[in-house]
Recover the amino acids of this structure.
């Protein structure tokens, strides 16, 4: 398949931005290195000083890695501000039956909760079962499946609510103003929908694009809105939803399924009987089979890595203020964070776009007719 | 490592939520929106095509009108020319007919005059003869007052008769 049109596509301007982005990434890597060295220096200083000094301050030592990782990872509570968190429901599928209770019972992991079947304790934001001896019973804990409405799930629900309210109201507007020019939210959304249709679906899939439009549009807006909400620092945004491997896994799995369900005989022939000498089949067929998996796998990793990296960079820049323990660094941090946020706005769109574009491309390769 | 290990719970909720979202949006959003956009595009295309057709029709009509005008003008000229010729011929005809008529009238008048003249002459002749008879009678009467003269005359008349 001729994929050159993918690259011709309005990328000229984007290339400049990409160049800037990569240039900036380099400086960021350096900044990261500095953060690390700063941390090391800081740590060594702390180590050199008597512990009593730190204790005298009455403050716990700031650990940027821990803070950032806590943010990046999922949680059973939604941190609002200070020591206030929104408790979220915990749903556990234990060998003895279902458990449903509020995460408020854990009191930020300080207390155990005695449920109907077991006693539970929150360890590093993971629900574990406490045995009779007061210690964690790893064997039973491993058999528990956690279906909790975590921070990411809740944030995803918020995003879904936002998406549904936007598009259903827009759809109603279309029903009301039949054959008229779009206005308001309609005129904001319509160009994007037409962009997905005319610049993503049509050139990559061809005349059969209409069947895949709902999936492509849903994917595009789901990823984009989640990306954008992830950039909002306050409740109900700020969760690292699209930067979670579970979500990107599901999205990539969707692509894998939709591509292979719609694959025609040419697609399967290309995999099992490629146009190579027969003695190359032992190599080619495994390679093609891996190719089926590796394409969505790349989608999964790309989205996850991009969004997570964005969150890590922003948080690292903010952490600089606490690492240097001075307000003097704040303007620098804020300036860089501002720049990063603007860049992340682009990345949020770009990742949704690339995910959808590649999905469309894979679908196009699977449904293409060879004559 | 925990970062890149998808948790089952989140996978479950994401899959469920995404499928629900897909179904809901497909039914309540994408279908009406894409349908409306498609319809509108169709409508605009149709309108543009129609406008193009109307333009062509207009051009056609304009050229047709021009042709008609030209034709009409030519026809008018033709008619005018014909009328002129007709007028000329009528005038000429009238002239000739007037002339002939005049000539005829003159001829008639002449014939009439001739006739009248003949009649008048005949009448005149009659009157002259009557008058001359009367004169002759008076003359004769006067002359025949004596018998001799009467005899002479009778004799002379008889002589004439014999001669005849």
């Amino acid at each position: 398949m001729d994929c050159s049109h993918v690259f011709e596509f309005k990328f000229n301007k984007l290339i400049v931005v990409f160049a800037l982005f990569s240039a900036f990434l380099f400086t960021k890597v350096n900044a990261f290195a500095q953060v690390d060295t700063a941390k090391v220096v800081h740590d060594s200083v702390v180590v050199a000083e008597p512990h009593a000094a730190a204790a005298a301050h009455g403050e716990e030592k700031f650990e940027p890695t821990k803070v950032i990782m806590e943010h990046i990872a999922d949680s059973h509570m939604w941190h609002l501000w200070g020591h206030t968190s929104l408790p979220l429901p915990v749903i556990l599928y234990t060998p003895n039956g279902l458990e449903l209770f509020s995460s408020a019972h854990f009191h930020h992991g300080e207390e155990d909760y005695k449920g109907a079947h077991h006693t539970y304790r929150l360890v590093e934001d993971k629900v574990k079962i406490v045995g009779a001896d007061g210690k964690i019973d790893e064997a039973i804990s491993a058999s528990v499946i956690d279906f909790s409405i975590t921070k990411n799930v809740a944030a995803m629900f918020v995003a879904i609510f936002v998406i549904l309210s936007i598009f259903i109201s827009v759809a109603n507007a279309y029903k009301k103003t039949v054959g008229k020019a779009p206005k308001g939210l309609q005129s904001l959304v319509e160009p994007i929908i037409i962009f997905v249709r005319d610049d993503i679906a049509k050139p990559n899939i061809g005349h059969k694009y209409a069947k895949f439009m709902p999936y492509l549009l849903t994917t595009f807006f789901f990823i984009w809105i989640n990306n954008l909400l992830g950039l909002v620092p306050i409740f109900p945004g700020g969760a690292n939803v699209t930067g979670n491997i579970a979500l990107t896994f599901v999205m990539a799995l969707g692509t894998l399924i939709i591509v292979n369900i719609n694959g025609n005989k040419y697609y399967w022939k290309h995999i099992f009987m490629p146009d190579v000498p027969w003695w190359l089949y032992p190599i080619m067929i495994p390679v093609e089979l891996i190719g089926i998996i590796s394409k969505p796998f790349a989608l999964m990793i790309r989205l996850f890595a991009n969004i997570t990296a964005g969150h890590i960079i922003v948080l690292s820049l903010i952490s600089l203020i606490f690492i240097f323990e001075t307000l003097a660094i704040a303007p620098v941090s804020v300036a860089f964070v501002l720049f990063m946020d603007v860049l992340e706005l682009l990345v949020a769109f770009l990742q949704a776009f690339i995910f959808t574009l590649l999905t469309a491309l894979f679908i196009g390769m699977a449904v293409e007719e060879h004559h | 490592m925990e970062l890149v290990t998808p948790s089952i719970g989140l996978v479950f909720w994401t899959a469920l939520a995404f499928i629900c979202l897909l179904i809901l949006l497909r039914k309540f959003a994408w279908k009406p929106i894409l349908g409306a956009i498609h319809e509108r595009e169709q409508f605009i295309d149709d309108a543009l095509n129609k406008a193009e057709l109307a333009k062509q029709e207009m051009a056609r009509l304009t050229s047709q009108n021009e042709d008609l005008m030209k034709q009409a003008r030519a026809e008018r000229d033709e008619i005018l020319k014909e009328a002129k010729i007709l007028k000329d011929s009528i005038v000429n005809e009238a002239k000739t007919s007037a002339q002939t008529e005049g000539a005829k009238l003159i001829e008639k008048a002449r014939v009439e005059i001739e006739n009248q003249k003949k009649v008048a002459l005949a009448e005149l002749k009659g009157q002259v003869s009557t008058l001359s008879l009367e004169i002759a009678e008076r003359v004769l009467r006067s002359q025949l007052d004596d018998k001799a003269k009467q005899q002479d005359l009778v004799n002379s008349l008889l002589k004439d008769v014999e001669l005849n």
